Amino acid sequence: MSGVAPAPIGVFDSGLGGLTVVREMLARMPSERIVYIGDSGHAPYGAHSEDEIRAYSLGLSRFLLEHFHCRGLVIACNTATAAAADSLRQIFSVPIVGMEPAVKPAVAVTRTGIVGILATVGTLSSARFAALLTRFDPNHSVEFITQPCPGLPEAVEEGRTNTPETRALVEKYVAPLLARGADTLVLGCTHYPVLRPLIAEVAGPNVTLIDTGKAVACRAASVFGTRKDCADAEETNIMLYTTGDVRAFSSGASAILGMPITAKRLQWVDGKLTGSSDDTKQ
Fold it and tell me: In terms of C-beta density within 10 A (0-12 exposed, 13-18 middle, 19 or more buried), how is residue 277 classed?
């Protein structure tokens, strides 16, 4: 019905990182209603088992669908996609858009044939990731060098995006990839684009950085459509929730999205998400 806003899109991640995807979604779907939950209380997901990540993802998805009647979900987390996307699609009937490291575009742009992939342990050890490499490089023409990056998601969550300690971590993870000839780096975690200026500075001007945010946003726009009857960006309705520290999350979200943001608090009780009725009403 004309004039009636469609149900929102639900988006979740282990914390702030998925907002780099939301930022791209807003650029393509400026009037879309989005409900975002950052599960900062469990961040980083890379430190948890697949069973734990599936349980968290199920709780987040169920909350978004039951409380906000979202018409679909975006899993704005590579680790959660690898661990839980298949099971969520079996449980829920709504469209679910996941994400994976940007291997395909990296294969297309590398000149040296050597691609470095920065990601979490959970992503790199998943069967989905192994299949991804085979799918987009069936002839093994490209050498992929994988690099887990513990500490980087925590740096983003805590607002330490350009400290000497974070720079040292980036140098530690990037230097071995460059030494082996990588000319393309895949940012395989949604937290890493927040550190993109620092990673680019460390990697140098001759190295291409690729992340999946734009591709996921394009996929979401295709799957969910856009609100053509309400194209005024001022009507964008973004609701943000966190299971972590509200003040820190709100500050980080404001920096990533470039607008004042005040998040609300959710908490896990007996494996389920809960919040006050005032905090979860539409």
Answer: exposed
